Amino acid sequence: MYKYILEKYSGPASRHTCPGCGRKREFSRYVDAVTGEYISGSVGKCNRSSQCKYHYTPSQYFADHPELGKPSHALYYRSKAVQEAASAAPIPVGIIERQYLVRSTGTQSYFIIWLSRYFGQETIRQVINEYSIGCTKDGRTIFWQQDISGRIRTGQVMRYDPRTGRRSKGPGAMDWTHAILKRKGLLPENFNLRQCLFGEHLLKAHPDATVVLVESAKSAVICSALLPEFIWCVTGGKAGFSSERCRALAGRKVIATPDADAHEEWLAKAPMVANVVGCKIVVSDFLIRHCTRQQRDNGYDIADYIIDQLIDDVPHEHLADKIRNQLETYFIPDRLVGLIARCLKEPFKK
């Protein structure tokens, strides 16, 4: 039994773009009172009640999605059918055979060609191998999602402009490997997609490394090329920063580095995610301090910052040191914490 309430105001990031009227910072979403997570991006109420009147309640949402159960008033009670389904054997997580990943391995995607302007071939090969980055015959990049056990969940297929490194738009610019395989009849229609963090498979091999969370695979690859000592994992967007997506981070030290326009939203969600997952999370303000207001509104990310610096001929090692020094301040080694505590208790003698 779960209770849903309208999200309390905690700053501009707690108010969203209304699905009804399109006005920014006017939409209050319903959240789970226990976990603090949103039901859906469309479930909520517009604050412009006299003009817009958009109000999509949890009851209406669950009525539209009967497979999720039915809430009663502010409470959500699982229907009898859902209870019976829950007590039955769970549907296995959909897994894609590794042969598809192996076949896709290559360096001829437009993204890798563009990235070669800024990093050497050895570095490029290393990040391709680390993240198992693939490519299609028409130059699109495949960012394979492998979970902490090495199982392949899906792959995001992206087309980039080889001149600018920006995502292309239009038909076929973005797709998913599980969807492609389903269209070809190579996966069942009931394939149970459960996404994981991009880069999650690296966690087991580096149990003591600090994890840095970013929103996009492009950012993770660029950051890993510059700062390979950290494990760069990807949420897949703002909404991907959730306890469900981050469950593999249990027991880890995590630095969340969202795009600049999501800083306040992630700052508000971090304590809940850390508590549910069982990890330590801090939210970096590096981008906030190094981008303009316009860049922040446009969703400037750490990859944008790195490329801008490299275009300005800032040496790789200087740039790496600048970012590294910022990230390393978030988690002081335990021995240093103990030393500081002793110093505060017993000040230095003259």
What does this structure look like?
With 350 residues, this protein is of the alpha+beta class. The chain folds into 3 domains: 2-87, no CATH class; 98-183; 202-334, Dna Topoisomerase Vi A Subunit, Chain: A, domain 2, CATH 3.40.1360. Helix content is 33%, strand content 16%. A hairpin with a 2-residue loop joins strand 5 and strand 6. Helix 7 (217-226) packs across helix 11 (302-311). The longest helix has 15 residues, at 263-277. Residues 72-87 have low confidence and may be disordered.
CATH class of the largest domain: Alpha Beta
Distinct helical segment count: 13
Reported CATH architecture of the largest domain: 3-Layer(aba) Sandwich
**Computed Rg:** 22 Å
First-residue to last-residue Cα separation: 62 Å
Compact summary:
The protein has 13 helices and 14 strands. The chain has helices at 58-64, 80-87, 98-104, 110-115, 121-131, 177-183, 217-226, 263-277, 286-290, 293-297, 302-311, 316-328, 334-345; strands spanning 2-6, 27-32, 44-46, 55-56, 70-72, 75-77, 134-135, 141-146, 152-158, 174-176, 211-214, 231-234, 253-256, 280-283.
What attributes does this structure have?
single chain; 350 residues; alpha+beta; Dna Topoisomerase Vi A Subunit, Chain: A, domain 2; 3 domains; 6-stranded antiparallel β-sheet; 13 helices; 16% strand; globular
